[in-house]
């Protein structure tokens, strides 16, 4: 499980995270909701050690990754897959090389085995015959899915999804939602999904959490969310511009 | 505005720049330390080094060719002018040869490669920084220094001497063409001056400097690429900084190396 305690991070003049606590059970899919610019991506980057908190701790199965050396944290990262909000595909490589990179770097698989795994994972995200293309010649939604294929190439135990369905058509969104569910069911993956897409959120979530003002202000099952009277959560899921969350 | 005020602001500016500069030096030293630490694991992916050698070396050939040809030609014209009535023209080949292999070849090649390769490394890594590709590498447990910096720095260190030998040859040839066609020195005279005054220590010093300059260029490109912030504008600024830093450091270290090589090691 992942246990986040009193995580605080200031970026520039903004206190992005402040005493943020969050627990994610093993095998669970948790969806993190929250207004734009509230620090959801920053939270994910802390969990995989790309950002270092000012205060607080992040325990991955009992190991605190805060203060670990880069070498130690790399051992933890090998169990993770991350989909970046902007896909972050390596634009000097082909899509196939992108998806196969960690296999090439961290496993002893042969080129043929890597090629097979790459096309399998691309198929999972609904992409076919794109291995030889450069990321620049893909559409935004295709790039997102290629990034997702890269994130799941190594059969990670934990997956961090930063807006997996943004920019996808409704049908493709459903394919991705199914995939997130399947990965959880078949491989027992623990996932954190950041999204603004409420259909997707209800579909994949065992639990939803809302990040606002640097902390998790609400957490509950999809049914609890539907039934809640918490004004902040209500405003968010109803999509209203008036309420406790001020759209500045 | 009071003069005092102005002086205070000037002082503040200098203080801040000095701090920035010291911080930069420290971070470059840290990057260099990392390059040494990841040198062996980085070299295990030889194909990355080879790809960079190709990008650096083959891509620069044409530019180095043109620059060297004209450098040799100009050296011949200038030598003839400065020799007039002082030194016999039969020595022209030796002057061109020695100034080219000790100084002009390595330094001009470094400035050209510094502009071209330093800029392209900084722009590439800078774009990778601002589009989260470096973060993506780290998230995949791939060390960016091992994967990106080591191949580029090593490739630059290997390719600079190779390009410099090429530049030396072309420049000497350029000098030969001018000497024979417009100064009136015979082929035999030019070539025998070359043979008489060729020293291996000159060539060795020139190539040693070239390798050193290669390291500077690669490191500056990578350092400024990695420290890029803020979109396309940031990439542009990083590129400029990388080229300026590379060229300035090449000239400064050239002076230092000249002292070390010719006043201590090869002093005689
Ligand atoms: N590298 C950085 N330097 C300075 N400030 C940053 C940096 N990264 C993020 N921030 C700030 O941190 C805050 C949170 O950013 P973050 O990207 O986590 O938002 P988000 O919740 O993911 O928003 P969105 O839903 O729009 O993706 C923003 O105010 C942003 O300006
Ligand atoms: Mg975000």
Alpha carbon gyration radius of chain A: 18 Å
Give the quaternary arrangement of the chains.
heterodimer
Average predicted local confidence, pLDDT of chain B = 93
What is the CATH T-level topology of the largest domain in chain A? Rossmann fold
Question: What is the terminal-to-terminal distance of chain B?
Answer: 60 Å
Describe this structure in words.
The complex is a heterodimer of chains A (248) and B (268). In chain A, 38% of the residues lie in helices and 24% in strands. Chain A is of the alpha/beta class. Chain A folds into 3 domains: 1-23 and 53-72, no CATH class; 78-192, P-loop containing nucleotide triphosphate hydrolases (Rossmann fold, 3-Layer(aba) Sandwich); 219-248, no CATH class. In chain A, strand 9 and strand 10 (215-220) form a beta hairpin. Chain B is mainly alpha-helical. Chain B has one domain. Chain B contains 9 helices and no strands. In chain B, helix 3 packs antiparallel against helix 4, helix 4 runs parallel beside helix 8 (200-226) and helix 8 (200-226) packs antiparallel against helix 9 (231-265). The N and C termini of chain B lie far apart (60 Å). Chains A and B meet through helix 2 and helix 3 of A and helix 4 and helix 5 of B. Residues 11-12, 14, 16, 34, 36-42, 85 of chain A line the site of adenosine-5'-triphosphate. The site of magnesium ion has 4 residues of chain A, from helix 1.
Task: Describe the secondary-structure layout.
The complex is a heterodimer of chains A (248) and B (268).
Chain A: E1 2-11, E2 14-24, E3 29-33, H1 40-47, E4 55-60, E5 63-64, H2 70-77, E6 80-83, H3 95-106, H4 111-124, H5 140-151, E7 158-162, H6 170-187, E8 190-194, H7 198-204, E9 207-212, E10 215-220, H8 222-227, H9 231-238
Helix pairs in contact in A: 3-4, 3-5, 4-5
Chain B: H1 3-37, H2 39-44, H3 46-83, H4 92-130, H5 133-139, H6 144-183, H7 187-196, H8 200-226, H9 231-265
Helix pairs in contact in B: 1-6, 3-4, 3-6, 4-6, 4-7, 4-8, 4-9, 6-8, 8-9
The structure holds adenosine-5'-triphosphate and magnesium ion.
């Amino acid at each position: 499980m992942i246990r986040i305690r009193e995580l605080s991070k200031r970026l520039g003049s903004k206190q992005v995270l402040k005493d943020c606590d969050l627990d994610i059970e093993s095998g669970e899919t948790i969806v993190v909701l929250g207004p734009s610019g509230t620090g959801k991506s920053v939270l994910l980057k802390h969990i995989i050690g790309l950002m270092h908190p000012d205060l607080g701790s992040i325990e991955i199965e009992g190991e605190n990754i805060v203060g670990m050396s880069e070498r130690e944290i790399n051992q933890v990262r090998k169990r993770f897959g991350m989909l970046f909000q902007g896909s972050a595909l390596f634009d000097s490589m082909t899509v196939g090389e992108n998806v196969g990179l960690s296999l090439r770097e961290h496993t002893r698989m042969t080129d043929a085995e890597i090629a097979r795994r790459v096309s399998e994972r691309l198929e999972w995200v609904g992409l076919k015959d794109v291995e030889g293309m450069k990321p620049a010649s893909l559409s935004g939604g295709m790039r997102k899915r290629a990034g997702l294929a890269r994130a799941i190439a190594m059969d990670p135990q934990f997956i961090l999804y930063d807006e997996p369905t943004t920019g996808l058509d409704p049908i493709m969104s459903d394919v991705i939602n199914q995939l997130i569910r399947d990965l959880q069911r078949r491989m027992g993956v623990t996932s954190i999904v950041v999204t603004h897409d409420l259909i997707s959120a209800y579909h994949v979530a065992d639990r939803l959490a809302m990040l606002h003002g640097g902390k998790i202000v609400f957490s509950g099952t999809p049914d609890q969310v539907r039934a809640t009277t918490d004004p902040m959560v209500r405003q968010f899921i109803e999509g209203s511009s008036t309420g406790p969350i001020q759209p500045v | 505005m009071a003069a005092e005020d102005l002086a205070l602001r000037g002082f503040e500016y200098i203080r801040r720049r000095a701090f920035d500069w010291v911080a930069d030096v420290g971070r470059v030293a840290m990057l260099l330390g990392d390059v040494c630490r990841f040198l062996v694991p980085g070299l295990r992916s030889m194909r990355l080094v080879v790809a960079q050698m190709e990008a650096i070396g083959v891509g620069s050939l044409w530019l180095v060719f043109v620059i060297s040809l004209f450098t040799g030609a100009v050296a011949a014209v200038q030598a003839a002018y400065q020799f007039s009535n002082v030194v016999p023209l039969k020595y022209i080949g030796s002057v061109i040869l020695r100034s080219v292999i000790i100084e002009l070849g390595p330094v001009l090649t470094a400035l050209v490669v510094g502009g071209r390769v330093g800029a392209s490394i900084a722009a590439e890594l800078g774009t990778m920084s601002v589009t989260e590709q470096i973060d993506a590498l780290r998230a995949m447990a791939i060390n960016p220094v091992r994967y990106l910096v080591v191949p580029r720095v090593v490739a630059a260190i290997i390719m600079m001497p190779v390009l410099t030998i090429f530049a030396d040859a072309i420049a000497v040839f350029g000098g030969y063409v001018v000497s024979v066609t417009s100064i009136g020195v015979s082929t035999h005279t030019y070539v025998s001056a070359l043979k008489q005054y060729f020293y291996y220590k000159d060539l060795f010093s020139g190539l040693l400097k070239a390798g050193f300059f290669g390291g500077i260029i690669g490191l500056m490109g990578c350092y400024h690429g990695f420290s890029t912030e803020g979109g396309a504008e940031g990439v542009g600024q990083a590129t400029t900084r990388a080229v300026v830093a590379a060229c300035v450091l090449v000239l400064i270290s050239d002076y230092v190396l000249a002292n070390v090589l010719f006043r201590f090691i090869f002093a005689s």
